[in-house]
Amino acid sequence: SQKIEQNSEALNIQEGKTATLTCNYTNYSPAYLQWYRQDPGRGPVFLLLIRENEKEKRKERLKVTFDTTLKQSLFHITASQPADSATYLCALESNYQLIWGAGTKLIIKP
Amino acid sequence: EPEVTQTPSHQVTQMGQEVILRCVPISNHLYFYWYRQILGQKVEFLVSFYNNEISEKSEIFDDQFSVERPDGSNFTLKIRSTKLEDSAMYFCASSETVLPSSGNTIYFGEGSWLTVV
Question: Which residues partner with B20 through β-bridges?
Fold first, then answer.
């Protein structure tokens, strides 16, 4: 079955720098992959979706890449701000369900 | 901006009791979902619902669970006889179209935190 791996260790980044988070999957390449933000005690909030035929997607300070050869997606936040501190989840479709990574906690230090 | 709303935000219940979690999906959405997240763990899919019937369900969604759309706006998750391990945050979500065909965005509610004691 499809498995998703995200770095379980918190990522500490200095304000203004670029934060890069990794999502690896183990099985077949999904038709698309999504990134969500989750704040403590809150529901996931959709950020970006990238399809298998897209190499890169951008939205304001966010950029997502999708490498089906490496079975990996990278999520970048440029010019990071303390307000970007949250847990970031990747999710992909498998058997008509969304399955989720455990998320990576991002801490942006002022 | 339209949003998915859930009630209650937090419920404490005795083991063995029935619980109903309520959700009001976004009004023009046709697909509804329940997910759960045990504290500190991954978000897990429970069930999807379309056209008044279950589309998909996971292994977690056993006979103790049921979903219903009792009227035009509410979507409920019922747990018949709660167990300690049912303690989790339960998220309702909705989308305009089905996920696999379009990769469409799903919108999550703020969650209902269930504590079984």
Answer: B78
DSSP string, A43-91: --EEEEEEETT-SEEEETTEEEEEETTTTEEEEEESS--GGG-EEEEEE
Q: Find where tokens 């979706």 sit.
A: A49
B 30-89 residues with CB below 8 A of A?
Answer: 35, 41-45, 48, 55-56, 58, 89
Residues A89/A49, Cβ–Cβ less than 8 Å: no
Q: Which residues of A touch B93 (CB under 8 A)?
A: 43
Strand order in the sheet with A19-25: A4-6, A19-25, A72-77, A62-67, A56-59
Cβ contacts of B48 on chain A, cutoff 8 Å: 96-97
Give B43-79 pLDDT, tens digit per residue.
999 999 998 999 999 999 999 999 999 887 899 999 9
Taking only residues 29 to 88 of chain A, the set having a beta carbon closer than 8 angstroms to any beta carbon of chain B reads 31-32, 34, 41-46, 49, 51
Q: What pLDDT score does A101 carry?
A: 93
| Residue closest to A15 by CA, chosen among A75, A68, A79, A76 | A79
Return the closest-CA partner of residue B34 out of B90, B85, B106, B113.
B90
